[in-house]
């Protein structure tokens, strides 16, 4: 567990060199770290994060585009993810965030702006009617929410000037410079993500899928053997996506699931596997230490996978903020806690739901 010890920096550890805290000298961003953000509606209050400034050599650094979703249930996780990205990158002012939300659209935007006053970001309204008739029930209710499918529509939602984006789920923290992930070469591929070829690929589809005379042949002719990859961390070439009509390809499998036969059980993941598995640019596993939330049913504690860590991902049912609030945290939940911006806890927390 040496990697855990390395990542568990004490709360009073010295900040990174590029960290800048306003000192109260006036101006819109001169507020104390513990300044209380104004609550918006039923959303909880969050502390204002420190301002992060570029280090040396950032003048020629590229703009990095990061996409995430926003909703009341996962807002706490999203803000923790943003803070982790800014804290660990050498050029934080070069990171632009693209948030996709359904509602409360304006309250969510005000909450982000209050917690990160100098953050460059845009919020895009996701019309859940796009997927309302295409979603079928899965093994966990959270996987059935329309916003879970928003990643399919990023190429349509984001401006065409955004040619590449990193998609991050809202239950992760980044503990490395995100520029390293941004800089991977995709080559001919549309997506880059860590692949896990030791996983049982057949388990992600039902017996009905594998017994069909035609469905399995959709995986034929791939550049490499189809392998599982987690869609919570993806580098996406939006130009290739748009040119290849990949949104429609994914929707096609969702329609098969809804109208023809039940061929999978795990929300938006299986359509991605059907369209992209075997055609993904492999990324180092350090960029998605996933599964820290346990499985999709019980959400039991899990350890890190062997190897270095650049990103910790609480995929699965168990979320670190819920376990911390309940006083029953897993050991690795302590790695998420330093990024939690929640100012106070309420008796009726909007996060205390079945996810």
Automatic annotation (TrEMBL):
Its EC number is 2.4.1.-. Pathway: Glycan metabolism; pectin biosynthesis. Belongs to the glycosyltransferase 8 family. One of its GO terms (cellular component) is Golgi apparatus. It is a single-pass type II membrane protein. Residues 1-34 are annotated as: Disordered. It is found in: Endomembrane system. Gene3D superfamilies: Spore Coat Polysaccharide Biosynthesis Protein SpsA, Chain A. One of its GO terms (molecular function) is glycosyltransferase activity. This is Hexosyltransferase. Keywords: Glycoprotein, Glycosyltransferase, Membrane, Signal-anchor, Transferase, Transmembrane, Transmembrane helix. InterPro entries: Glyco_trans_8, Glycosyltrans_8_dom-fam, Nucleotide-diphossugar_trans. It is an enzyme of class 2 (transferase).
């Amino acid at each position: 567990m040496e990697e855990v010890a390395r990542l568990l920096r004490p709360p009073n550890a010295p900040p990174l060199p590029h960290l800048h805290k306003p000192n109260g000298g006036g101006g819109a961003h001169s507020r104390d770290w513990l300044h209380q953000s104004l609550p918006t509606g039923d959303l909880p209050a969050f502390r204002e994060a420190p301002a992060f400034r570029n280090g040396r050599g950032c003048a020629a650094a590229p703009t990095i585009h990061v996409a995430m979703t926003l909703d009341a249930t996962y807002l706490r996780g999203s803000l923790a993810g943003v803070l982790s990205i800014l804290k660990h990158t050498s050029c934080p002012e070069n990171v632009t965030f693209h948030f996709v939300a359904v509602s409360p659209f304006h309250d969510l935007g005000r909450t982000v702006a209050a917690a990160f006053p100098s953050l460059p970001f845009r919020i895009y309204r996701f019309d859940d009617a796009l997927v309302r008739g295409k979603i079928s029930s899965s093994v966990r209710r959270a996987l059935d929410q329309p916003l879970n499918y928003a990643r399919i529509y990023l190429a349509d939602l984001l401006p065409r000037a955004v040619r590449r984006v990193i998609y991050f789920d809202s239950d992760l923290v980044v503990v490395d410079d995100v520029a390293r992930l941004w800089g991977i070469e995709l080559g001919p591929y549309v997506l880059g993500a860590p692949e896990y070829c030791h996983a049982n690929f057949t388990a992600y589809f039902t017996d009905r899928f594998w017994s069909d005379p035609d469905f399995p042949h959709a995986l034929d002719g791939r550049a490499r053997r189809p392998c599982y990859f987690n869609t919570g961390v993806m580098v996406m070439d939006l130009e290739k996506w748009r040119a290849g009509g990949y949104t429609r390809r994914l929707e096609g499998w969702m329609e098969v699931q809804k109208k023809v036969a039940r061929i999978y059980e795990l929300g938006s993941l299986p359509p991605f596997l059907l369209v992209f598995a075997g055609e993904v640019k492999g990324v180092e596993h350090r960029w998605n230490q996933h599964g820290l939330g346990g499985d999709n049913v019980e959400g039991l504690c899990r350890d890190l996978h062997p190897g270095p860590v650049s990103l910790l991902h609480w995929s699965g049912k168990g979320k670190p903020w819920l376990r911390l609030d309940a006083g029953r945290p897993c050991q690795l939940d302590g790695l998420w806690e330093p990024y939690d911006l929640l100012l106070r806890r309420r008796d009726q927390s909007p996060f205390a739901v079945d996810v």
